[in-house]
Amino acid sequence: MRIPSSYLVQFHEPEGYLDFARFGPPSHAVVDASTRLLESSAAAGPATVDDLMRQELRAKAAVARLCRNDTDHVALLPNTSTGLFQAALGVTGEVLVSAGEFPANTYPWTRSGRAAVRWLPAGPVTPEAVREALTPATTALSVSAVDFRTGYRADLAALREVVGDRLLVVDGIQGFGVVDEPWEVADVLVVGGQKWLRAGWSTGFAALSDRALERLDPVLSGWTGAEDAGLFDNAIHPVAEHAAGWSITNLSPIAAGALATALELVELAGVDRIDRRIAEQSDTLAEVIRSAGGAVVSATDRRAGITAFTLPDHPPSVVGAALVEAGVTATVRPEHVRVSPHVSTTPGTVARFADALKSLGARPAATPVPTPLATATAGPASADVLRALVPTVNSLAEALGAGTEVVLHDLGALPNSIIAIAGDLTGRAVGGPMTDLLLGLVRRGTTQDLAGYETYAPDGRVLRSSTVFLRDGSGVAIGCLCVNSDPGSRPGAEPAARPVEAFPGDVDTLQRMLVERAVTAVGVPVELMKKSHKSQVVRVLDEAGLFLIRDSVDYLAGVLGVTRYTIYNYLNETRG
């Protein structure tokens, strides 16, 4: 089952972003909804506030659907910590909490002073560990659905069975909306919306079971959590029924609208689809890590979207610095580096990540990244020769007369190799790329002079062209001088089946033209291509010199719908 395109188009985080376990950049829909509601509040009228407050009902309804619950059991919150403090202030007896939990899950229990904390050893909160720690005094277990360090995914159904009638308090911020869990088994489910839900800050909710509503004393219950909250009669009203009693005050309707929009997007895509796609993204990142000689130190069986890793001989701080230099956003901790992709993570982001790890010079990757065929880089003496020829380009064009174009290329400046041009037969300029014909010749090392070959200008005119390669003292080609001339109409001349040479005005055009030509040559639409077809496209483009162009691997990966790493694998196979 595919992720709907109507969901995917809502996201466009910066390339290189792999930190959704810390913060999820909101969708276009969330930004638009927040802006619209804020603008509505700026044009306040008699019904504005009442209209805005309806966003709370919309958000509660979306929460209830995803939790398989009802709105009477849902309260909106500004963050996870608020919900956990409310739960901690309502629990008495003994609560089991892992010492390795994120601090938002430990401070409420120690600060509230209401329940005695029995610490579980740091590590996965498994049913076996909980069973061993239970005592007759235990009244609750507090646990993260997904561990923030290791991505371990708690078995909530099994934990429910182990704790029995005790309260099960679950922090779901690292999993809700992106992993398919039986959230209804939790007595208190608290979720912040700023991470995987991508709803922005100050968004969140608590979903409460009947057991929780019966046993927890709503100490933090404000005026909006009272019966008849709108009745101002100078009296303190009883706590409202159901989860409404957990309300402290009115929350931002703009935040409520953002949360509702984000949750509705999750419903559109389907949690099971999101879950599978993030698992695939995590598998790809793990493959890149292992290929770079790294070790995945996070959970591999029961896991969510978090992948933690180390690289031999490279402290996490050094790895983190390399990632920053490559434009990759991740979380660096003293013991490891944590990456966390989402459905919208692009092949370009994976490629940046792979390049960063390679730059550290870790153990050789299982699939080494090949480099394109090198072209000669002009040394000082050679560069002087090419610079000296620049003025002669105009002089030569004038000597040859009207209808002539003279072009000087620096092969060390590929792909933007044009350093001088006189004439406008092909519409190019300094800084433009060489032709597809020359690029292929350079790629294959066929740098023999070509004289008097026929080609066609972009407007269809027949041109007569000659190319002379310029060499250094060792005979290595460092540049070429090309002359194109328009001999005029030739009666009886037959048009060529296809142009011998193309004259793209910029590198993007050259790149696009080469890829389109290769796809056409294979004869299978991209959406129907199998691995063999895509590998054939890569082979054709390798021969054409595409990979001499900077960032061409990223471009081709996007066209073929694969990762940059996959393109390198195809290149290995082709060149092997």
Task: Please outline the helices and strands.
Layout: H1 5-8, H2 28-42, H3 48-67, E1 74-76, H4 80-90, E2 93-98, H5 107-112, E3 115-120, H6 127-133, E4 138-144, H7 156-163, E5 167-171, E6 188-192, E7 204-208, H8 210-215, H9 253-269, H10 271-291, E8 295-296, E9 307-310, H11 316-325, E10 331-332, E11 337-339, H12 347-359, H13 380-400, E12 404-410, E13 418-422, H14 436-444, E14 450-456, E15 462-471, E16 477-485, H15 507-522, H16 531-544, H17 552-560, H18 564-575
Helix pairs in contact: 2-9, 3-9, 10-12, 11-12, 15-16, 16-18, 17-18
Structure, explained:
By secondary structure, this protein is an alpha+beta fold. Strands 1-7-6-5-4-2-3 form a 7-stranded mixed sheet, sandwiched between helices. The chain has a 5-stranded antiparallel sheet with strand order 13-12-16-15-14, with helices on one face. A 4-stranded antiparallel sheet has the order 8-9-11-10. Helix 2 packs antiparallel against helix 9 and helix 16 packs across helix 18. The two termini are 36 Å apart.
